[in-house]
Amino acid sequence: MMRAFLKNLKEQNGRVFFRALVILFLIMGAGLGGLLFYGSRSIHDLFENNKKLKQAIENLTREDQIGYAKVIRQETIDGKLYTTLKFVETARDNQLKKVLEREYAIEGDVVFFDALIVTFNNEDVMTGEKRALYLWRRVYGESMAPSEGYPIEMESQAPKRYADFLAQLSLPEQEMFWDAVWKLADDPDVLKKHGIEAVYGNAVYKKLRPGLIYVFKISGNGRVYPETVPDI
Q1: Average pLDDT in the 6-15 region?
Q2: Residue 141 in contact with residue 155, Cβ under 8 Å?
Q3: Which of 122, 146, 176, 196 is deepest in the core (most CB within 10 A)?
Q4: d(C-alpha 129, C-alpha 17), whole Å
Q5: pLDDT-derived band of residue 44, with 50, 70 and 90 as boundaries?
Q6: Which candidate, 115, 113, 116, 100, places its Cα nearest to that of 141?
Q7: Which of 227, 216, 218 minimizes the C-alpha distance to 64?
Q8: Using one digit for the tens of pLDDT, what is the confidence trace for 103-114?
């Protein structure tokens, strides 16, 4: 009889535990869903209702030079040619000021440079001429897949070129903005309702040679192109 009583108690406790576990998962699921909804709602609220963000976008000026590259050395290793290059990103207001400098060793002498161009053309977001952000993504050789390229700017982080761009926003708002903008690389429709679109420099490449500097510029229609000048 005692054994039957203990068995019944164990079964009851198991049912109670299972019910508690189900309730806990439901609560967690509701909380997670609310968090995702809040995050989605917040980024759209930021674009629609934040006057400081709109003012920052309006203050963006048209840019033409967004960086340059130069060959440090080219050498053959185990029968393969390698190009070591230096990539420099310059300040928006001073083309002689470096804000980012990286060095890469790429197999071969043909190198691709991938830039993400984000344009703002919704009259509800800004006034006057179209405004844009130019974000360097990665660099890679012709024997590499683009997804295996070396990063230039780190995704979801504020590019050094735009360190002062969102100075009037709170840190969480800045992080939310850059996270959404970088996601345009994977989902260009995510912010389309706000008149924001991403354009890709999908064939920006050059056969690199020592003694030259490759200055990267942006055309009026958002095309990235290299301009070659002698390294003085």
Answers
A1: 49
A2: no
A3: 196
A4: 63
A5: confident
A6: 113
A7: 218
A8: 999 999 999 999
The contacts found for 193-196 with CB under 8 angstroms, 24 or more apart, are: 193/44, 194/44, 194/47, 194/48, 194/122, 194/124, 194/125, 195/120, 195/121, 195/122, 195/123, 195/124, 195/125, 196/47, 196/118, 196/119, 196/120, 196/121, 196/122, 196/125
Three-state secondary-structure class, residue 99: strand
CA distance 189 to 140: 26
Give the chain's mean pLDDT.
79
Residues in contact with 229: Cβ distance below 8 Å, sequence separation at least 6, in sequence order: 212, 213, 215
- Whole-angstrom CA distances from 94 to 38, 65, 162, 224 are 39, 10, 13, 19
Q: Are 122 and 196 in contact (CB under 8 A)?
A: yes
Sorted by where each begins, the domain ranges of the chain are: 2-49, 58-230
Pair of tokens at residue 114: 């991938």
Q: 103 phi and psi, to 5 degrees?
A: -125, 135
